[in-house]
Design goal:
The complex is a heterodimer of chains A (604) and B (347). Chain A has 604 residues and is mainly alpha-helical. Helices cover 63% and strands 1% of the residues of chain A. Chain A has a two-stranded antiparallel sheet. The longest helix of chain A has 37 residues. Chain B has 347 residues and is an alpha+beta fold. Chain B has a domain of 165 residues: Sandwich (Immunoglobulin-like). Chain B has eight helices and ten strands. The longest helix of chain B has 34 residues. The termini of chain B are far apart. The relative contact order of chain B is 0.10. Classes of the chains: A mainly alpha (604), B alpha+beta (347). At the A-B interface, helix 5, strand 1, helix 9, helix 10 and helix 11 of A face helix 1, helix 2, helix 3, helix 4 and strand 7 of B.
Amino acid sequence: MSETTIQGQQVATVLHGHDDHHGHDHHHEESFISKYVFSMDHKMIAKQFLITGMIWAIIGGLFSVLFRIQLGYPDATFPILEDIFGKWAQGGKISPDFYYALVTMHGTILVFFVLTAGLSGTFANFLIPLQIGARDMASPMLNMLSYWFFFGASIVMFASLFVQTGPASGGWTIYPPLSALGQASEGSKIGMDLWLVSMALFIVSSLLGGLNYISTILNMRTKGMSMTRLPLTIWAIFFTAVLGVLSFPVLLSGAILLLFDRNLGTSFYLSDIVVKGEILPNEGGSAILFQHLFWFLGHPEVYIILLPAMGMVSEVLSINSRKPIFGYMAMVVSLFAIATLAFLVWAHHMFVTGLNPFLGAFFVLLTLLIAIPSAIKVFNWLTTLWKGNLRFTPAMLFAVGFVSLFISGGLTGIFLGNSTLDIHLHDTYFVVAHFHIVMGVASFFGMFAGVYHWFPKMYGRYMNNTLAYIHFWVTLAGAYLIFWPMHYQGFAGMPRRYYDFSNWESFKHFGDLNQFISTVSMIVFAAQLLMVFNFFYSIFKGRKVTSENPWGANTLEWTTPVNPGHGNWPGDIPEVHRWAYDYGKDGKDFIAQTEPVGEHESKH
Amino acid sequence: MSGYFILAILVLAFIVIFQIAKASEYVSVLKGEEQTFQQNNRINAFLFLVFLVLGLAGAYWCNELFYDRTLLGTPAASEHGEKIDFMMWITLAITGLVFLLTQILLFWFAYKYQYTEKRQAFYYPHNNKLEFLWTAVPAIFLSVLVGFGLYYWFGMTKDAPKDAQIVEITGKQFNWMVRYPGKDGVLGRKNYRLTDASNGNALGVDWEDASSHDDIEATEMHLVVGKTVKLVINAQDVIHDVGLPHFRMKMDAVPGIPTTIWFTPKYTTEEMKKITGNKDFVYEISCDQMCGSGHYSMKGIIVVETQDEYNRWLAEKKPQYLTVKEAAAPAAPAADTTARPIAQAIN
């Protein structure tokens, strides 16, 4: 451990040296550019990720409202839509091309730009140095680049929304040949190239970030901060980073091969194709190969999104129950198990592609195995609440909501992971309900818990509680009202990604339900705007935080000043003497990690 | 205009909510933070209990409303489908139980252990017996599910019985094409480079292969009730998916890689009309893999009928090869149509 201390102090000296060099007259005066734009302070980079993610979340959420308008009111026309979107909504009705573009971009934006960058980018950056006791990331420079590559990816993706033929529209999974052939779909023209370029930039960003997170967690922990004393947030972020580093490059290779197929005449994914009467020369490729490459990232991606949320929820639940997290080691081991299994289950997305059934059997087994660590986590969370003394801060509400949603969405995974049932349920609304609840809404709940909990650390102010409560209850109720009935649509075999069901004898009898779901989704979207407003308003006008440790928490970030500067601690980095979860021990409300173990203290 | 009106109302509602929220913050400062915290805590804890009760009631009500519209209450129209339905009920029972148990515990704990000054939280960091309990019990239940699942999975994905009828279905943007092997029971060879829809060869059949000469092409799929059918599934342009919700079957159609499924229809279309009480009932093939802007309209029809009805339907059909040759007849001598098979037979 002595090495890490030295490293920490070295960083301190470097930072102080920097001050000495520049700062006799203008102490800590940074230019606007270096403080807010090309900042190398992990806290500022975290805020940049968060705010960019929020902007994307509004765009992605708005897209879902738009396509829900089509699904809920397939016969109505809204002239206002034509005013805004022109040819994409001629006569006030969303066109099929527009609908599919909206669906595709909604998925892409929320999965990658919001829940990957906005969630794990934000909290990995913000929490790692603060909670392990480091001045900054291992490489602040790479960290800054990580954000700016993400920004670049955002610009390219945003630009793709405005090209004449529209953005990518083959679903967020961009399966070729549809995504490879411009003739097959408007969205497979220039929009698809931009999608791929944007994702390539995004992957670079994610790798720079991930490598940084891993090396920081492994090498820069403060004195006494052994791995087994790390808060669960850090463990979760650590496994997330490992998942990202190992799986994103595979998507990059898949995307590059697709770019080749699109532009250079190769046949990695193409074979025996006649499109719109045109006979293509490509032979020998396999469309299924892409799906393997895609899901080798795509499945870990689900956990890249979910694990940080789990970590933050564990932390928030424990703090606000005033109790240690139950089964710390079991929580770490189950995170590890989930992260490992995440690599071994990708083909469960492909049970009905003609996959070898024998191979499929292994994927069934490994997929259902994930239910075991998931069950451990759920029961441990429940036991953490048991006999606690629960404080319902907004963060705590979202943490409890997360557990509820994780249960609901996790259980439906047991249906879909079982190939026999997947034959029937695959690509129906049951799938839509499943993944929206378990990785969409649940991860959002984790993210909200994180934002409400660490907002005081980020900005030295509180968010408005009343707005937060409204936000929570509308979102929780709304999430269930939207996605619970979708399971029934799934049981009716209703396929996802349909623009209109009115021509189908088998599926047309859900018109009233679709209308209901669409209405609720608009209300829920409005509630999210309320949260965004609360966020920005509170940055400037929120109630000020007066104590260093407003939640009575044990972790190191609450030993920094209310508004920590670059370097986090004004003096030496504190030393750690215990794990992060001594709440309610020996009659004490909480014992910070920095407090030495007392002589008569009971052992746990 | 109404759009802008709704927008204005929304903005107004926003402002009102925000003003209330701001006012409540001032009130909390006046009342004292501790007291406000306790009051809010009580409200939220109570709301969790309300949410649990309303949620469970809502789930029950939702089931009342929608159960009959799903396929859960409609018998599966194939033998595979019956197994899938059985499996579904086992899974529903197990997960339903876990769902009730954990959700009730979660919200009940949230209510019961809400903050009071009187209670000190119970320091309870771990218990290996409990951890073992909730590792082992889920493992046992999952073994049951995996066991059932794989048993049925292998049963359904093994090779089709030898006497199964073979029908080929090909997807293209945005419709389905069906081909029957004709009397010889063999589908003629295909080569995608021969595809020529304007000359009656939309499927790219290689007429050089004699077994193609009695192949019958159709837009609707007719199947015989009680007779096992093996579908050979193709796609021409992008990936499609043959979705058969009533048979509970599904398989992707991938360009360049033919796939197969097999099943045995149990009820004729007429019987299903009675079973579902819907006089317009038809077996529909839905495309279940995103395939472009017309994805939602890519519908096929399956008619399940008795052997007699099927035979009558088939008798009306003419092999595609003959149709093509007749169309080409003015240009080429009619003898050509008969000469080919003979030539093939000699080879």
